Amino acid sequence: MANRTNTPKLLDNPRIPVQAKLAAAWTSLMYLVLYIDYFHLYQPGEIDIIRGGNIFVFEISGNLMTIFFVLISTPALMVLLSLTLPARVNRATNLVAALLWIPFCVFNAAGATPDYALYYGVTIGVEVLILAFILRSAWTWPRTVAAAAAPAKTELRQSV
Hints:
The protein is an all-alpha fold. The chain has helices at residues 18-40, 46-51, 62-84, 87-107, 117-139, and strands at 54-55, 58-59. Strand 1 (54-55) and strand 2 (58-59) form a beta hairpin.
């Protein structure tokens, strides 16, 4: 027979490693960027402009597509790097990548018409909030006290 008590049971809230938080944030950002670009195509006339060979004010070319690939591959690579790099390099890489991505996100507002000001304001705001979370998580990376090194042995040779 089960022992029933009135003691409330609390949910376990295990600590999430900072690497997992960063990887999740970069994954979220990557999906948002893709969806924002996808929904941009719903704007009247946008597909016709692209069919005409332009994206915003840029002529579609191999160089432009390469730049776009490098930009959009950054969050994907940051998911992998956030989970695999050593802590010190990981922290620096996340700080630099997130700082470089903020202007890229804000640039999406260029050329926005007043009809879509709310859309771009909300999407850019969410992207910047995710990047702020990444910056905060990397900046406040938990630290541990370095262990003292063991004394060096004077005799390196072992007797046989």
